[in-house]
Amino acid sequence: MGKQILCVDDSVTIRKLVKKALEPEGFEIIEAENGQVALDQCGKCEVSLCIVDVNMPVMDGFQFVEALKQKPEYSHIPVVFLTTESAAQKKQVGKELGVNGWIVKPFEAPSLAKVVKMLVKQ
Amino acid sequence: MEELQKLSNAIRQYEDGDLLAVAEIRETAETLQTRVEDEQIAQILENIVTTAEEIVLQGSSEENLQQLQELGSALISSASEEEVPEEGQEQAREPKKGPQQSKEQVAANLKEVTIEDSEILSSFLVEAHDHLDDIEERILDLEKSYDEQTVHDIFRSMHTIKGVSSFIGLSKIKGFSHRLETVLNSMRTGELEIEEELVDILLNGGDVLQQMVSDIEAQAEGLDTSSGEAVIYEGRVDTSEIDTRLEPYLQKIESGAAEEKTAGAVEKSGTPAAPGAAESQVKPEKTFAEELISPEMIQKFVEETSDLVDTAEKTMLELEKDPTNTAGIEEAFRAIHTVKGNAGFFGFAILEKMCMGIEGILDTLRTGARSPDPQIVNLLLQSIDGLNATLQRVHKGEILPGELSDSSVSAEKAVASKEEGDYKPLGDMLVEMGIASQEAVDQALDMQRMRLGEILIDQGEAKQDEIEKALEQQGKEVPEKKDQFASYRIKRRDIRVDTERLDKLFDLMGEMITAESMVINNPELEPYDLPDFERASNYLSKISREMQEITMSMRMIPLEGLFSKMRRLVRDLSKKFEKPINLEITGEDTEMDRTVMEEISDPLVHIIRNALDHGVESAAKRKAAGKPETGTVKLSAGYEGNEIWITVADDGGGLKRDALIARSLERGLIQGNPDEMKDEDVWKLIFEPGFSTAEKVSEISGRGVGMDVVKKNVEKLRGKIDIQSVEGEGSTFVLKIPLTLAIIDGITFTVGPQLYSLPITDVIQFHKASEVEITQTSTEDVVINLRNEVIPVVKLYDFFQIETEKKRVEEGIVIVAQARDHKLAILVDEIIGYRQIVIKSLPSYMKDIRALSGCSIMSDGKVSLIVDTGALISYVLE
Description:
A: alpha/beta, Rossmann fold, 5 helices, B: alpha+beta, 33 helices
């Protein structure tokens, strides 16, 4: 079984896209539709990377990362924001929260795979 | 060579955090590394790879970012001597262009879109339809009433559509939804007012988007990409009409953004001594006070202030017409005084300062120290314009609330605002023009008994004509802005209605329900079969029910205000008790009748105080018990059936059964065997008068008064308190308050000639007692045995001293009612039936009658008295 990657996005389409981009590369994709669900998933799986949308209902990307980084057992997990938000201020917020970086939508499957492979050594 | 140049460019353009870019850089460097012959360049490329990896894996720092930049430039300088072989690497390195870009068909409006995966497309279509349905519904809600959350939800849905469509290459849908999203975002931030046209555009825009999606859907049907790519066409739906209508709004937003940028730039280049609005916005750490001030509160402040300033302005205008009409001066003074106080609280120092000046002048008029001559009225009116102008800027968010007390900052802010060409107080103007010294003005301001200009003349600091010149200048200073202000209206979503009028409406609504019932249940109609009348009366009932709901809702306000008061309370108490406590609030948007909320405030404060004092343990104790040192108190609210539940839950030590029982025995509060008591009954002991378990009496809680008062207050609202508690884990108090007070479902019955009603929630069953079930326990007392339960009987005719023929229990009907966990069998003559009854308060001469909570007028015009079950039970048990 490949490394597990948690994809947090309220859009099922985006989650499918991420899945299609990464599964051929040997990663296993775990889906969550919002931050809350994602946090629950973290407890159940061995997550190597979180790919997180910013705008989500219930618990948004920022809140999720904040919660994630507060838990010592998860704080090491690298986090990538997958977002259309390009405002510098938001990026700054993300950086302060300790995310590794962001990928601006739309992305191409090979580029995403590249980024993921760089962050998760198989 | 060319590739190295490109790589170097990519590095130069790299924006911190852009993972796609850094991944691209890393890969390009790695590929090139294998091909370059120059060792030096190869080394640089290798360094680029490691630095890029470091940036991604360990996070970017100033050092590694700078290093990357240096490596990028080094690449160029080294490469200028070296040639790199070019073998069609273009394709490998160049990011693959999206098909939508390469196959753009400009000729027709049609655009070819290559679909690589039909599964993804259909997933998008389903999702887009869902979102659009959602959007439509929410926009309709928005039309009815504004709600920030709704706008936010619409925005998010639109955002998702935009994001996903951009992936698939549906650039027309993306572009169109992007424009709608832009407008929504500005609505969300308050930049754009929500107006009819805008809502209309959004609705129609949603329709057009829906058409676009449906168009794609029709084409996608049967599309199979399993064998490769497929092509569909976009752009068959015309968006131009909506686009044209959107244009003015988009322009407005753009110009707003541009303005903000320039303002920000000016701010930054300005002197550090003038911290303006923009700067405080960036400030990451909010003080507690700032946290308290929500945008809604500022909005309310602006609305209220606007009203108050209008009041003052009206007075001034009346004074101008008729200088003898001094009646309103007092009111104007009070209005400005209130504005001053509020502005001070919110930290709008400039407003506060302006009000102080106006207030001073008004005070001299009020006390008669000066007469309201036209000049002074004119000055006041100008000052009021200035106030309005500043208020407008607050409304637009240009002036943000500052610190609550830091006067130096406030003063600086005032100066900063003034420098931006704001209204200038006369005193400042005089100083600036070099007519009077700052000290002289300050001194004069201190006196503020006379008009400033005249004081200065009196003191020989300035001459009459100079003052007049300054006054003239003051008037002229902001001519353009003044026009702007004149047309300025604060658009509001509410109107102010005197609560008395609202109460009157409420009363009338009650009367109307009574009147309606009189018509529909009119005894004169009884003998006839009237199907048409029945239909009409059903229709009437439906409408009056709706009207009743709306009337009720008008008195409802969200719990937000009350809950934020609790935030403050918890903060203060947490400091006082030296217990770190985290208050979690949910459901603050739950709405509650205003009068009920006023009643609930004290009990809630009491319960929260208790939770902090007795509930949550000290940090040391918590640590020893293996709990997090910071205690948590959860305050939440929500609707449960016909009630509002307000829950206060702490994760403290919980109630201690043994301690409660011991204390109660000590005080003689328990009859019977305490071991047999259920936990919930034990918890309820804390509501007994004179009960206190606190080991040490603290300043605020634990004086033995309190919980019984809390209970009484809640019961006054016909509410209940439930307690759940687990020792060591915490306790939960639930206040259950009925939604409406004035109209209840009731059971109406007769005793002799008199009508009585009981709230249906109190009634358990009706029973026609037979002789065997009845036991006479003494000459007066009777009990009834129902399903092995012995229930005391109260003969209502006896209790209320009414003549009736049905004096024996088996002759009448017994209503078994429950309140305060006791059951009571109430003997009545006859049950009339179930009604919606409108509770009216008892006339004052009947107030002394025991166990009545109100009265109600029945459909035949008779009055029914509403029995207070709880009070009746306590009388009987005594």
